[in-house]
Amino acid sequence: MEIQDLKNVGAQVRRDIIRQVHSSQSGHPGGSLGCTDMVVALYFNEMKINENKNAEGFLEFVREGMGEDLFFLSNGHISPLFYSVLARRGYFPISEMSTFRKINSRLQGHPATHEHLPGIRVASGSLGQGLSVACGAAFAKRLRKDDRLVYVMMGDGEQQEGQVWEAVQFAPHHKLDNLIAIIDWNGQQIDGPTEKVMNNLDLKAKYHAFGWETVDLDNGNDMQHVVESLKEAKEKTGKGKPVVILMRTGMGYGVDYMMGTHKWHGAAPNDDQLLVALNQLPETLGDY
Amino acid sequence: MKKYTYTDKKDTRSGFGAGIAELGRSNPKVIALCADLVASLKLDTFIKENPERFIQVGIAEANMIGVSAGLALSGYIPYATTFANFGSGRVYDQIRQSVAYSGTNVKICVSHAGLTLGEDGATHQILEDLAMMRAMPEMTVINPCDYNQTKAATIAIADYEGPVYLRFGRPVMPIFTADDQKFEIGKAWTVNEGKDVSIFATGHLVWEAILAGEILEKEGIDAEIINIHTIKPLDNEAILKSASKTRCVVTAEEHQLNGGLGDAVCQLLSRNIPMPVEMVGVNNSFGESGTPAQLMEKYGLNAKSIVESVRKVMARK
């Protein structure tokens, strides 16, 4: 897909995020907006997924995903982004986004398999677990001689969870070179800037020390750079080491009053704020 | 009282080792994972015969559960193994989110459960795991009674699609169940038919219940003994049927009184046919170092305690 087309998808996804969070008056818009460009690039440009359609015209979802690239969202609180991308990619009706975080919905506050929402392979939300699951899936792909890749996204605040480092240690030991982790390094977490809450220090040096290949993505909100970083990461796979993309993003990117602050990590806009936000985000593909 | 004899004694963990070794030969989807306790979990044969299907995770149990979930959603049947203490409380949230809530087909197989771990002491003697796992939606909880039953259960759970917590232990115990038994999840096994009292026992306490039955027989008490190897789902039908006949119940488990088999049985009975119940288990305390026999005696988890509980409950009828 052309860069401009990816940007157009991104603009619509950002509208979807704001509208979902506004409608339920809950959720996490900040990180969702910041990671939009990467998740759009993955699903609309980079990843090979099963393009078969079911009787209703939606993408056929097979949980095992053999022959497909897989994506795991470990920082599950950015679920409105995940749901928008999955719906826009064709996994389920875009109208279903209106049920986000509401009773009897498949779009739970945090991603879940329990209600059988197509596109979700494992529940996430309790932080620190996704990299381990992705390691298992990557191990399985190798055993089954499936040469597709496993992607997993984590937050930078999430790096404070001990389990992350168990998995960071595991992947190089078992030479999982079909695994690409992406860290949303926005420097913010719910209680404030990460350097004040719990300083991550030099994530690049840490991952190097644990035996990973690293890719710097200095602007994760520039689609051209995002696409190039994924290409660079892919070129580093298959060489005995897992790869991590250290992605610098702006929390809340795309909505001026949400940008660069932790205050919109887990807060919903009111009606007036919704209008201000939507005025900044062009409706490119049609609202749900 | 039906006579139970044995010619051999083995640990239940060796039953697990034998079971997973057999699965290694018969089921190519089975993968074993271990957190630095290969010898304790008796995985040597499986690893020797299937090196590519063994994953050493190091001392990192949380990661082991997550990796297992990833393997399971990719079509494998992972057996995640460690001590019961590290495979339950330590990783409760990982099991909850990545396994039970996500519906991944992970088998959590844990050894050294309960007081019979012995000398290592209370840090390792988990007595709350059945309660934790019972409380978790969509989890199956199994606690077999001897080597043969543990082996059979290990093999049987591979054919069941869904998360399982399989609990076994370290001490050498009489082998008194059949080596060709068919293990049915959720189906209680009547060890002895009787009419005066129902003894529902699980794990290592089943053998103690048999010893208790022999003592009671000499006193003219005809005890019905039922092996509840599956704590969840509970065999409601078998329990209600037996209790309806005997009208009084004793439960026995190597676990806290809170939240284990006894509580499960009481919940069932109180909602259907309330009657006197006495419970044998650990009463709201941690364990300590000692030999398994000393500990079971000190904490009241043996035939003698079961006999006393039977007398007590029969007096309440």
What descriptive keywords fit this protein?
heterodimer, A: 288 residues, alpha/beta, Rossmann fold, 9 helices, B: 317 residues, seven-stranded mixed sheet
Percentage of β-strand residues of chain A: 5-15%
Q: Can you tell me the CATH topology of the largest domain in chain B?
A: Rossmann fold
N- to C-terminal separation of chain A?
22 Å
Q: What's the story with the biggest beta sheet of chain A?
A: 5 strands, parallel
Order of helices and strands of chain A: HHEHHEHEEEHHEHEH
CATH class of chain A: Alpha Beta
Name the overall outline of chain B.
globular
Computed structural class of chain A? alpha/beta
Q: Per CATH, which architecture of chain A?
A: 3-Layer(aba) Sandwich
Description:
The complex is a heterodimer of chains A (288) and B (317). Helices cover 39% and strands 11% of the residues of chain A. With 288 residues, chain A is an alpha/beta fold. The longest helix of chain A is centred in the N-terminal third of the chain and has 22 residues, at 3-24. Chain A has a single domain (31-251), classed as Rossmann fold, CATH 3.40.50. In chain A, a hairpin with a 2-residue loop joins strand 4 and strand 5 (192-193). Chain A has helices at 3-24, 29-46, 79-89, 130-143, 162-173, 194-197, 203-209, 223-236, 271-279; strands at 70-73, 150-155, 179-185, 188-189, 192-193, 213-217, 243-248. In chain A, strands 1-2-3-7-6 form a 5-stranded parallel β-sheet, with helices on both faces. A two-stranded antiparallel ribbon of chain A has the order 4-5. Chain B is of the alpha/beta class and 317 residues long. Chain B has 2 domains: 9-174, 3-Layer(aba) Sandwich (Rossmann fold), CATH 3.40.50.970; 189-315, Rossmann fold (3-Layer(aba) Sandwich). Chain B has 11 helices and 14 strands. Chain B has helices at 12-26, 44-49, 61-73, 92-100, 129-135, 147-156, 205-218, 236-246, 261-272, 292-298, 303-315; strands spanning 9-11, 30-34, 54-56, 77-83, 107-111, 140-142, 164-167, 172-174, 189-192, 197-201, 223-227, 230-232, 249-256, 277-282. In chain B, the strands form 3 sheets. In chain B, strands 3-2-4-5-7-6-12 form a 7-stranded mixed β-sheet, with helices on both faces. A 5-stranded mixed β-sheet of chain B has the order 9-11-10-13-14, with helices on both faces. A two-stranded antiparallel sheet of chain B has the order 1-8. The longest helix of chain B has 15 residues, at 12-26. Chain B is globular.
